[in-house]
Amino acid sequence: MKQILCDRSHAGQILEILNEAILNGTALWDYQPRKLATMEPWFDAKEAGNFPVIGFVDEQHQLLAFGSYGTFRAWPAYKYTVEHSLYVERSARGQGLGKRMLEQLIRHAEAQGFHNLIGGITSDNHASIKTHLNCGFEPCGTIRHCGYKFEKWIDLSFYQRILSGPMNPVDG
After folding, report:
1. Contacts for 131 with CB less than 8 Å, ≥ 6 apart
2. What is the CATH number of the domain that holds 13?
3. From the centroid of its chain, how far is CA 150?
4. How far is CA 47 from the centre of its chain?
5. Is 97 part of a structural domain of the chain?
6. What pLDDT, in 10s, does the model give residues 85-106?
7. Under a CB-based contact definition with an 8 Å cutoff, are residues 90 and 100 in contact?
8. Does the chain have fewer CB atoms within 10 Å around its N or its C terminus?
9. Is the CA virtual torsion 112, 118, 120, 124 positive or negative?
10. At what angle do helices 39-48 and 11-24 cross, to 10 degrees?
């Protein structure tokens, strides 16, 4: 298995992983699969914010997992906080890829001088919650019944990890 930085050539594989999560779980709160055209603005936003898209591929260059982070909230005072997401291809789950991906996201965010890494996790996603706790994240709140999918209400729990950066934070 090899770690890579994903680019636009990986859009189709990323989309397959996302759409599987949309259709079969509550990690993504969309109702319908996304179209390939949605990946262009997604990559544009990642590039504009200098946010990495990290992947793990197998020997055949098949994407097994990917993760990234982006703007947490669009107001200036949040500039040192980012929200991450990571997804593991269905057949590759349970092999520790989520933890390895999260560790890489932490490293990248720290290297870029961010101070806070936020994860929003569906409250019944026990595997993701365990992974976050094992990587030093702390629970910081739950919004109950804020989503509705598969004919049930969904709670969203937030987890955060305080990072070492930035060395010299500034207002404005």
Report:
1. 98, 99, 102
2. 3.40.630.30
3. 22
4. 16
5. yes
6. 999 999 999 999 999 999 999 9
7. no
8. C
9. positive
10. 110
